[in-house]
Amino acid sequence: MTRKELGLIVNPVAGLGGRVGLKGSDGAEIQRRAKELGAEPRAQERTLEALSKLGGLEDLQIVTYPAEMGADAVRAAGWEPTVIGDITPGRTTAGDTQQAARRMMEMGVDLLLFAGGDGTARDIYEAVGLEQPALGIPAGVKIHSAVYATNPVSAGELARLYLQGRVASLREAEVMDIDEEAFRRGSLQARLYGYLRVPFRPSLVQSQKVPSAGEAASLGGIAEDVAEKMEPGVLYIIGPGTTTRAIAQELGLEKTLLGVDVVESGQWSVDRDRRAARLVAADANEAQLLALLDEHEDKAKIIVTPIGGQGYLFGRGNQQISPRVIERVGRENITVVSTPGKLHVLGSRPLLVDTGDREVDELLSGYLMVVTGYNERAVRRVATDGSNQTHRGDFHLV
Fold first, then answer.
1. How far apart are CA 291 and CA 286, in angstroms?
2. For the whole prediction, is pTM greater than 0.85?
3. Do 249 and 191 belong together in one domain?
């Protein structure tokens, strides 16, 4: 095989604000707050997952930046990289990412592989535009852009296939980002910044996030169904979204639209007009969720809705509901809700999970029941990527 060169750029702070509930990692102040809350960087481990799939590429040269921007991960994966550029360890910037991308493009790398979120994708786009084939390893909090693989393993597999010439097509994929400050205030303002050319195989690349349509009748039916089946004294961890917000409204509570809230259900009113409920925690992070599970002896359930257009249940925008939280609550105590229209957009594609823990992802894989209206259900498959392979048996979440 002809010698191939892979450029690798790691945003070392990508995803830092996810599990601590900061809804992003952009900016030095947010990164400082995330670390104060106990956040741990995850970009390196996700990059290692991707690099682990490059086996068989014997005549491969990996070009990267020093230390945490790539060299550390490459060496940990067993490769000796060509290291270019200079950084200040622990204080890398968007400018470092852009400079690295430009230099790698000038060197003629066959593919630019980068780990991060939407902000990183923007930096890569600003540097190389449509001139350089590129592919993202999902490591950020918010990933609306369609330039990312479905998960780190898929990123490594797709990079290997492309470098081997087994995937020849390149797709112009959207680079999207949101206003993080508005996002933290509960307002989702997404903007298209441009396009990157990415290797394309439908099962390995995620779709662009699509805003949910209204479907008011379906939302009302879902909310009534879920509220009716709530158990008194149980904690309900409710993920972000307009679909889950309707459930909180049915209970007479305010919902953090883009955050994770915790509700404790109570008894029905005398005329059974509304179930009593109280808001235990608003916009909770992982540590708060784990503390509440300790207090309530794990008597809890999770309610989530898939991201429109992408189908992610866990790992995109709700990292507060971490693998540890999922394991404590249990697969059997997860309820998935979705309007029929949101499922229709997905077509035959499965619902996806990318929690950052492969064992938890596999635990969640299989078939489940989705609440789509009052006493209405749909059976959908959950997978770790977009392929048609069934990972586990016929499991059901109720």
1. 9
2. no
3. no
